[in-house]
Write a structure and sequence with these properties.
Elements: H1 30-33, H2 39-49, H3 58-62, H4 99-229, H5 231-284, H6 292-314, H7 323-333, H8 336-347, H9 354-370, H10 384-396, H11 402-416, H12 420-445, H13 451-472, E1 477-481, E2 494-496, E3 510-515, E4 517-521, E5 532-536, E6 538-542
Length: 548
């Protein structure tokens, strides 16, 4: 039976009926909004009526109690409607449930459910915190990897873009130079055609002059014939000759006026062609950069030529003089700087090493070519522009950076070395050096060089000058050193020409040096001056262990 406070029972099969133990004790006011019935409302109804809670149907009463494993989780909620809560009754269809029994069971079930929900809530909270922490760490690490990858990609992309920009710039310069070259070449062809046309006109004029000479000869011959034949033919011949003279009088002034004009045009066109060729050469010329291996090979050729010349010229020289006599002879012919460098060599003169000493003597003079300021021969004449170039170079060393100064030096000296003025001065100084070397060697060896031997030495000096100029027009800097007599042997920049396998590690004083060393300072652009690279090692003759 249902009392007046109950609502009509609801027997809908799609709803769940509520047992007292399934009602949450900790449900708050918000449970009503979610169709949840608070535990307090059930207890109030139970206390007021003092009756038991009847189950909606016998099927739900007979259903066994759900175990802990089948208990609803903390995440799921049971929806309640007012019709799903049954008011306690004394009897329903003959089945009675006491309120005390229902209340006890509901408290135990609620307690177990509360513990289970509390444990589930803690596990869920720990799991959520764990997953959140792991997700945050993964996100930070992924973000770092992404940022690092992005930075690396940006650097690579920037370098690649810079590379292609440089390639594009060089291609544009190449295309512009090619266009300029084509324009200049076309202009040269036009001027050459004009010159050919003018030459043809000059040839035509020369042909006319030859025709006039022929006519003059024919006129003279006709005059002779008329004088010989007499009056019957004299009138005819005279008329012909008069007509020829009249035509010549008309044509000759025009030719005389045309000759100076044609010659002037030819000279002007030839000068224009020369200027265009010079412009083309200047515009298309690359920087005078040469590989270190090429320079080292040419230095090797210079060394062998000097060695062969010394052997061929002085191999039969008699070494009868004492070191004191040789020093005295050297003092009479050698100038002060060279005498100071050679005095120690001849003070310890050894006849067995005479050829090496003679080659060292010639090399002492040749060193002036490589150690000259800027270019060998520059400043040797009294021309004002050469002294100004030297002064400008001295001033720029204090103004420009090493990189900028080396670039200026390379371009300026490359232009200057091709001038006729410097080539003439270089030729004169080279011939003077040949005479000085032959004079000194003739004094110490008592052998005078022949004219052919002097020409051979002049060829060697020219090669040395050309090679020294090639070194000085490079942007890189080079150091040239000729070891002095008595100095210590340094294996990193020297080779002992008389060393044997067992003597390679020994360091003895140097008797003389037959060739210089070349050391490159910096890179090929004149920068990074801390770098040093030995291109050519000096050729030195060391003293023997039992020698003087």
């Amino acid at each position: 039976m249902l009392d007046d406070h109950t609502q009509a029972p609801c027997f809908k099969t799609d709803r769940h009926e509520i047992k007292p133990e399934s009602v949450r004790r900790d449900a708050g006011p918000e449970a009503a909004d979610n169709n949840m019935v608070p535990a307090e409302s059930v207890e109030a109804i139970t206390a007021r009526d003092d009756s038991s809670l009847a189950i909606n149907s016998a099927e739900h009463i007979d259903r066994p109690e759900a175990s802990l494993d089948e208990a609803p989780s903390a995440e799921s909620e049971i929806q309640l409607t007012p019709s799903s809560v049954l008011i306690p009754s004394e009897q329903f269809d003959g089945i009675l449930i006491s309120s005390e029994q229902v209340d006890g069971e509901s408290k135990d079930s609620a307690k177990r459910l509360s513990n289970l929900r509390s444990t589930s809530t803690k596990i869920a909270s720990l799991r959520a915190a764990f997953e959140k922490e792991g997700t945050a760490a993964d996100m930070v690490q992924s973000k770092r990897r992404l940022l690092s990858g992005d930075r690396g990609t940006d650097r690579i992309g920037e370098k690649e873009r810079e590379y292609w920009r440089e390639i594009g710039r060089l291609r544009d310069e190449r295309d512009k130079e090619a266009e300029m070259k084509q324009l200049f070449q076309a202009r040269c062809i036009e001027l050459e055609d004009e010159i050919e046309l003018l030459k043809q006109r000059i040839g035509t004029r020369d042909g006319k002059e030859q025709g006039d000479d022929r006519e003059t000869k024919e006129g003279a011959r006709d005059s002779k014939i008329s004088s010989e034949t007499g009056p019957p033919f004299s009138g005819v011949v005279g008329d012909v000759e008069a007509e020829r003279k009249k035509q010549k009088a008309v044509e000759v002034p025009a030719a005389e006026l045309h000759i100076p004009q044609t010659s002037t045009q030819v000279e002007i066109l030839e000068r224009q062609i020369a200027d265009l060729k010079r412009t083309i050469s200047t515009s298309t010329r690359m920087d005078p950069v040469r590989a270190d291996t090429d320079l080292a090979q040419e230095m090797g050729v210079l060394h062998h030529e000097l060695q062969n010349w010394t052997v061929n010229t002085y191999r039969r020289a008699k070494a009868n003089s004492t070191p004191t006599e040789l020093v005295a002879k050297l003092n009479r012919v050698a100038e002060a700087p060279h005498f100071d460098a050679l005095r120690q060599v001849y003070a310890t003169y050894d006849p067995s090493a005479k050829l090496a000493i003679y080659q060292s003597t010639a090399m002492t003079y040749i060193m002036d070519i490589f150690t000259a300021n800027l270019l060998f021969g520059l400043g040797s004449s009294e021309q004002e522009w050469q002294s100004r170039v030297l002064q400008t170079a001295e001033s720029l060393t204090h103004v420009l950076s090493p990189l900028a100064y080396n670039r200026w030096r390379s371009v300026t000296l490359d232009v200057i070395r091709h001038t006729n003025s410097l080539q003439e001065a270089t030729e004169a100084v080279g011939m003077s050096m040949v005479e000085s070397i032959c004079a000194v060697l003739a004094a110490v060896s008592d052998v005078a060089a022949s004219d052919s031997q002097r020409l051979s030495l002049n060829h060697i000096i020219r090669r040395a000058i050309s090679l020294a100029h090639s070194f000085h027009v490079q942007r890189a800097q080079y150091e040239f050193t000729l070891p002095t007599a008595g100095s210590s042997f340094r294996g990193e920049i020297m080779d002992d020409i008389a060393a044997e396998d067992g003597d390679l590690g020994q360091c003895r004083p140097i008797r003389c040096a037959t060739f210089l060393s070349v050391v490159k300072v910096g890179d090929e652009f004149g920068d990074s001056l801390h770098l040093r690279n030995v291109l050519v090692k000096a050729k030195a003759l060391c003293t023997t262990p039992d020698g003087p």
